[in-house]
Amino acid sequence: MLRYVVRRLLQAVIVLFGVSVIVFTLIHLVPGDPVRVALGTRFDPGTYAALRSRSGLDQPLLQQYGHFLGHAVTGDLGVSFRSGQPVTQALLQRLPATASLAAVALVIALLVAIPLGIVSAIRRGTVADYTAVAVSQVGVSIPDFWMGILLILVFSSGLGVLPPSGYVPFTSDPAGWLQHVLLPAASVGLVTGSILTRFVRSAVLEAAGRDHVRTARSKGLPPGVVLRRHILRNAMIPIVTVTGLQMATLLGGVIVVEVVFAWPGLGQLTLDAVQTRDYPVVQGAVLLFAVIFLVINLLVDLLYAVLDPRIGYR
To answer: How many CB atoms lie within 10 A of CB 173?
Structure first.
């Protein structure tokens, strides 16, 4: 197990190096001068030259990348051109908002996907199956931002029970945080739950058709026991795999929803950085998203051995 984890960590270092090269190259190919954008109407040739020199933009690209990589290894991702704040500090300040939104969205998605997927699979060909499939199809077809607008119209503008936007830290007001997080989390969670429903249904159907399940049924075991002990346990690995991928996607892909609900998370920060050509923030955010993906994938792989003792890591 330890050797496997060490090998995966070494692979993660190589992946992060590749990501850093790609993102550094792409953002420097985008037209626009970040220092010129940051100065705006206060443009002055002397100030402009001084800022480019201080930020290292007057150096060759290879030298700029070497400087960025050398500091990134120590956790220093540079300083924002726009705010002057250290990028690492800015990312850590925004991370709790995005993490809490993604966590609630994932809970909503699982509460939707697992019951619908199981009922659809064990009642295959019935009205319940067709209804679950139709509901999941509708959810997949609706974009996150459109779902968010619909929820705002119903629960905020119509019923007036939930705020349409804003953010309250959980540590300062848990009840206020819950009220503000429900609509954006539901916007992402309902769509993600619709996607997961299909995978849950397929995994349960595949597990239900195996020989040991038919043997358990032929022995007269109650349907609930067969479902819990023989079907769901074998269906958990593909479900956990897809859930892990969706979790990583939620953490890195809620940009549009954060904009719709004025949620001060990593997505909003990254979008602002792209629009203002804030290179250090964009590079740091992409690297952070890559780290999140790698960590979640590693945890999912390690969870396989817990779900199925036959799986070993050598």
So the answer is: 12
Tell me the CATH architecture of domain 94-307: Orthogonal Bundle (1.10)
Contact 158, 214 (CB under 8 A): no
Percent of the chain with pLDDT over 90: 2
| pLDDT given for residue 261 in this prediction | 86
Q: Which residues of the chain have pLDDT under 50?
A: none
170: left (phi over 0), alpha (psi -120 to 50) or beta: alpha
Instruction: For the chain, state the CA radius of gyration.
Output: 24
Cβ contact 149:260 at 8 Å: yes
Contact 271/31 with Cβ under 8 angstroms? no
User: Which DSSP string do the residues of 96-132 spell out, in sequence order?
Assistant: HHHHHHHHHHHHHHHHHHHHHHHHHHHTTTSHHHHHH
Residue limits of CATH 1.10.3720.10 in the chain? 94-307
Two structure tokens written together for 45: 């040739």
Are the CB atoms for 139 and 301 separated by under 8 Å?
no
User: Distance between CA atoms of 78 and 280, rounded to whole angstroms?
Assistant: 6
| pLDDT given at position 111 | 92
pTM value > 0.85: no
DSSP 108: H
Task: Give the residue carrying structure tokens 């992402």.
Answer: 188
